[in-house]
Amino acid sequence: MATDREPDDWWDRAACAGLPTSRFYPDPEDKRRIRAAKRICAQCPVRAECLNEALALGDIEFGIRAGLPPRERRKLHRQTNPQHEAEETAA
């Protein structure tokens, strides 16, 4: 999913390392593929790091990250970035 990372980066220890990124960007209506992606994330030893990166980068619109769909990541992003919520309300 990512490039330009250090050789010993957390990403290398992720359960999804080496898997096609398409597995984590299923059609929002494809519940079976969503569950499959979440199962992979559930066993991941670096799930917290993945979530932290997704929230820090604002990666909250598509796909499954750290086992969470976009809706759940958007909620967390608003909770951890109150200024972002104010910007959305003003728009």
Automatic annotation (TrEMBL):
**Family as reported in the entry's similarity comment:** Belongs to the WhiB family.
User: What are the 4Fe-4S Wbl-type domain coordinates in residue numbering?
Assistant: 15-75
Q: What is this protein called?
A: WhiB family redox-sensing transcriptional regulator
The record's listing under PROSITE patterns reads:
4FE4S_WBL
GO molecular function terms noted in the UniProt entry: 4 iron, 4 sulfur cluster binding; DNA binding; metal ion binding; protein-disulfide reductase [NAD(P)H] activity
Q: List the InterPro entries hit by this protein, alphabetically.
A: 4FE4S_WBL, Whib
Q: Which organism is it from?
A: Allonocardiopsis opalescens
**What residues form the membrane-spanning segments?**
none
Alphabetical GO biological process terms: cell redox homeostasis; negative regulation of DNA-templated transcription
Q: What is its main location?
A: cytoplasm
Query: Which coenzymes or cofactors are required?
Result: [4Fe-4S] cluster
Q: Which GO terms describe its cellular component?
A: cytoplasm
